[in-house]
Design brief:
224 residues; mainly beta; Glucose Permease (Domain IIA); 2 helices
């Protein structure tokens, strides 16, 4: 009787710490009702699940992203390159280039790709504004980080992702739309105009101070 009680007690202790020895091997015990897993707090730069050089795989016809082609690559900062199939080494620094005949600085990078290529969110956040400007960025999306200190701006889209709406929570890699030439972009050179703005929490989506996305995505110093 005492031996049986000791056996039960030892088994209970081993089970409570999550391990048992089965046929000479340690076996991890998973509780029948494990603690719930909560989503990690999302940050302005990126999720914490992928490292530089990793890829996300996107289903070309599905929202949100799933494990399928084409791929989205992760830059050294943890931001996703926001056009599927474009690698960090393919990027060109156009941040300081002149626009409007030299009247203003570009303050963004142009990511060249064929019309219809998937555009994805570079980081987690909230879709703050879906906007159209005929003479400017055309079909565009503004995503603000949860701490309200960053805006990610995607412009010249051909179309928006199915069901995309203001107030929607997105993760890194969530589809936002397709590469296009809407607004004042050349029809012969479809591309994504991608900008990052540092924000004060109370500032509106149209405000902020531009930050060059190129070093964050490409891992190389600005060429401007």
């Amino acid at each position: 009787m005492i031996r049986s009680l000791l056996l039960v007690l030892i088994t209970a202790v081993l089970t409570s710490i999550g391990w048992m020895v089965w046929n000479g091997k340690e076996v991890r015990i998973t509780p029948a009702n494990p603690d719930p897993v909560h989503d990690a707090e999302f940050e302005p730069a990126a999720e914490r699940t992928l490292d530089r050089g990793d890829t996300l795989r996107l289903d070309p016809d599905a929202d949100p992203p799933t494990m399928a082609a084409p791929s989205v690559e992760i830059g050294p900062s943890g931001l996703a390159v926001p056009v599927a199939g474009v690698a960090p080494e393919d990027l060109v620094d156009t941040f300081t280039q002149a626009r409007a005949g030299g009247a203003r600085r570009h303050d963004a990078i142009d990511i060249m790709a064929e019309k219809g290529r998937r555009v994805v969110s570079a980081s987690s956040g909230i879709v703050e504004k879906i906007y159209f400007s005929k003479g400017g960025g055309g079909k565009s999306v503004y995503v603000r980080s949860k701490d309200k200190r960053w805006i990610y701006y995607y412009a010249h889209l051909d179309r928006y992702a199915r069901g995309l709406k203001e107030g929607q929570r997105v993760k890194r890699g969530t589809p936002l739309g397709r590469v296009g030439s809407s607004g004042n972009a050349s029809k012969r050179a479809p591309h994504l105009h991608f900008a990052i703005h540092r924000m004060e929490p109370e500032e509106g989506w149209w405000e902020g101070r531009p930050v060059n996305p190129y070093p964050l995505l490409a891992g190389r110093a600005s060429t401007g």
